[in-house]
């Protein structure tokens, strides 16, 4: 390893690689556990279905998916705000707690004993939640620097990290109070209907507005878009208890679930995206596809809330499947690939699309959507997810693992500590983020 790669700034700049590898390995463990739950029958699974499903969702949302989000944050935010890179030991502590938390949940489920499951799940959820507190100080550091280049991304860049400790606290409290059905719902809603969409939309805006300079959203309106989206998401979450208490109608309840996704899709200016593509501008195809899944998520949420599509109680809603795989997973890995190519300083026109990953994620989501629409058309209740769709999602997990192993271990491309494009934010690009003359 040369001198540049041994420097502290290199280690900090490349921290996303450690978190990406952690994510690809742990998502394999997750899909194995999920498939095991779906194909195995025992006393634990039959009598504790809701709590097992909740533990798996926490493993998904705060586990490997949060690793990707944290990895992108650890690498990009110090560059964008030109602050000293986050402490490497902090990142290692986060990875250790995150991996151990996921493994505890996995083992607790697969051992099959009720007492062991609740003990291991409590340990695992506590570790995953506590790991978010570790990310609090770096998030505060970015928040204090929010006036630096805030115009391209606004609060989508600096505000999201500030809610991580709150999410951790809500998750722990909700698990302790798990006998109350609303506490389970509230915890999952905060993660999957608020944080994950906000974080992923942040990467989409960052890619198109900042990285490609397409200006899909006027920088002067970024704050208004963020505030409106946040309000719509909170209204959607709060509509559930209101509907259950008979305070609002089913149509209002269903519409509130749909509005956040339709709003942000329109705000992202899909016509301008198409115009840029027609002009031949380079872009990430995975990021593009994730944008056009937004209205599908909104429609699916509306149909399921209206009970136009009927599933069994043991199934996760179809809109969340599309949200996780068609939208979130695709956008996050697409953004990570683009950032990695920036570190390799590849020309935008020479970048290759990971077609097999792209196809597997989108075909899986199309199959999921078709199954949902078929249920609406025929009026038949859905008792299980389409197995070929699950197979496509599982294939994407394996392909992502192989892709990142090849990129990190076997790639012959030069890797640079400061990625192309982002050096414009640094006062001293050769020394890395946060360097000052008096350092």
Can I get a quick summary?
This protein is mainly alpha-helical and 439 residues long. The chain has a single domain (3-425), classed as Cytochrome c oxidase-like, subunit I domain (Cytochrome C Oxidase, Chain A, Up-down Bundle). The chain contains 19 helices and no strands.
What topology does this entry show?
Layout: H1 3-6, H2 8-13, H3 15-39, H4 43-47, H5 49-81, H6 88-111, H7 114-134, H8 136-144, H9 155-158, H10 164-176, H11 181-211, H12 222-244, H13 250-267, H14 270-278, H15 285-292, H16 294-305, H17 318-344, H18 355-378, H19 387-410
The radius of gyration computed from the alpha-carbon positions, rounded to a whole number of angstroms, is: 21 Å
Between the first and last Cα atoms, what is the distance in angstroms? 25 Å
Order of helices and strands: HHHHHHHHHHHHHHHHHHH
Shape: globular
**Would you report the number of β strands?**
0
Q: Classify the secondary structure makeup into a structural class.
A: mainly alpha
Task: Report the average pLDDT across residues.
Answer: 86
Number of helices: 19
Low-confidence stretches: 1-13
Helical proportion? over 70%
Q: CATH topology, which one?
A: Cytochrome C Oxidase, Chain A
* CATH H-level superfamily title: Cytochrome c oxidase-like, subunit I domain
Query: What is the domain tally?
Result: 1
Report the sheet with the most strands, covering strand number, pairing sense and barrel closure.
none
Can you name the CATH architecture?
Up-down Bundle
CATH class: Mainly Alpha
Give the percentage of residues in beta strands: under 5%
């Amino acid at each position: 390893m040369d001198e540049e790669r041994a420097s502290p700034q290199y280690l900090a700049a490349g921290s996303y690689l450690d978190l990406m590898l952690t994510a690809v390995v742990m998502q394999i463990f997750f899909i194995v556990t999920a498939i095991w739950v779906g194909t195995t029958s025992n006393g634990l699974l039959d009598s504790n279905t809701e709590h097992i499903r909740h533990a798996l969702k926490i493993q998904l949302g705060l586990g490997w998916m949060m690793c990707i989000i944290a990895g992108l944050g650890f690498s990009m935010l110090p560059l964008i705000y030109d602050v000293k890179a986050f402490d490497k030991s902090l990142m290692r502590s986060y990875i250790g707690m995150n991996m151990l938390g996921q493994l505890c949940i996995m083992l607790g489920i697969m051992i099959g004993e009720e007492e062991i499951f609740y003990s291991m799940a409590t340990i695992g959820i506590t570790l995953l939640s506590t790991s978010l507190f570790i990310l609090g100080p770096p998030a505060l550091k970015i928040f204090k620097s929010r006036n630096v280049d805030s115009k391209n991304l606004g609060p989508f860049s600096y505000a999201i990290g500030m809610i991580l400790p709150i999410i951790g606290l809500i998750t722990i409290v909700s698990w302790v109070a798990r006998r109350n059905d609303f506490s389970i719902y509230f915890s999952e809603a905060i993660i999957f209907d608020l944080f994950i969409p906000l974080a992923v939309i942040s990467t989409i805006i960052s890619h198109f507005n900042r990285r490609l300079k397409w200006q899909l959203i006027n920088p002067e309106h970024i704050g208004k878009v963020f505030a409106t989206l946040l309000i719509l998401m909170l209204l959607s979450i709060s509509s559930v208890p209101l509907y259950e208490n008979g305070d609002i109608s089913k149509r209002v309840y269903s519409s509130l679930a749909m509005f956040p996704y339709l709003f942000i899709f329109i705000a992202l200016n899909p016509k301008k995206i198409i115009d840029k593509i027609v002009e031949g501008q380079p872009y990430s195809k995975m990021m593009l596809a994730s944008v056009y899944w937004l209205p599908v998520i909104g429609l699916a949420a509306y149909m399921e809330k209206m009970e136009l599509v009927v599933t069994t109680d043991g199934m996760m809603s179809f809109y969340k499947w599309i949200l996780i795989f068609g939208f979130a997973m695709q956008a996050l890995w697409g953004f990570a690939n683009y950032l990695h190519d920036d570190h390799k300083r590849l020309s935008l026109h020479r970048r290759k699309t990971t077609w097999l990953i792209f196809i597997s994620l989108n075909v899986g989501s199309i199959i999921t959507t078709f199954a949902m629409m078929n249920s609406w058309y025929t009026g038949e209740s859905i008792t299980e997810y389409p197995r070929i769709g699950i197979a496509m999602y599982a294939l994407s997990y394996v392909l992502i693992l192989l892709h990142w192993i090849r990129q990190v271990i076997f790639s012959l491309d030069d890797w640079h500590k400061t990625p192309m494009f982002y050096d414009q934010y640094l006062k001293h690009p050769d020394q890395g983020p946060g360097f000052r003359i008096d350092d």
